[in-house]
Amino acid sequence: MIPSRRLTWLVISVAVLATLAAAVPFVFTAGSGPFRHTSVRGEEVLLHGHGPYRHMPADVAVQGLAQDLVTLAIGVPFLLLALGWARRGSRAGHLALCGAVGYLFVQYFLYLAMATYNELFLLWVALVLLTFQALVRLLLAAPPEAFRVDGTKGTRRFVGGFLLFNGAAIALLWLGVVVPPLLDGTLYPADLAHFTTLVVQGFDLALFLPPSLFAGSWYLKGREPGSLLAPVYTVFLSLQMLALLAKILWMSAIGVDAGPALVMIPLLLLGAVAAAAISLRAHRGARL
Prior knowledge:
single chain; mainly alpha; 70% helix; 3% strand; globular; transmembrane helix; membrane
């Protein structure tokens, strides 16, 4: 099913707005520079002090800049390439487009919840609105059985197993941040800084990791929903892990210890790219 003209323009609008949102922090960098702030829990936090991310902790602000850079260099170009691929009626292109839109939806959904209020707020609102509309329309464009493929057991095991591993590994990583302070009575994780809650960990555990587990299980068992969701999630995860790798490299460059993520993220990135290539290749030449 070739995306309609209205859906095509919706995706193009997302590309334009995402480019603008990702470019602004590199263009408008005014500010007094890094400064220290005492959080509501009495901890001293070094804030970034420049541009739209000026009131965010310095190590978190560079993560936003790193993701913006990946969105500009990879995310938006891939979105437009996938749109052109899908416009030719390719089933693999349609799945890739779903994954690219999903990446931008998750990015700006998290920005709305995590970033301190700034000039880009309404732009992020528009991006979440448009990417959600596009993602729902793309996922519902055809029934799951339209994406069914008779892949080999090896393909199903690798892709399904990887998605199960990804969901479980990240869940355990985040629980390792949240649970120890609950057990020792300190309650607040050190990484909380001056934020009110753990936004990424909360949304991952509640919303973004369960689809990885479901898609992996369904794909492993050869069930039809997995044929749709597994390729979409692996494409999304490839872009997301690339952004996370850029974040930890930038953090390491400013002297912040990335911990186990420095090993885990590159491995998950390699696995996601391999799983995306394998799962999309199963749809090569097929049309909707």
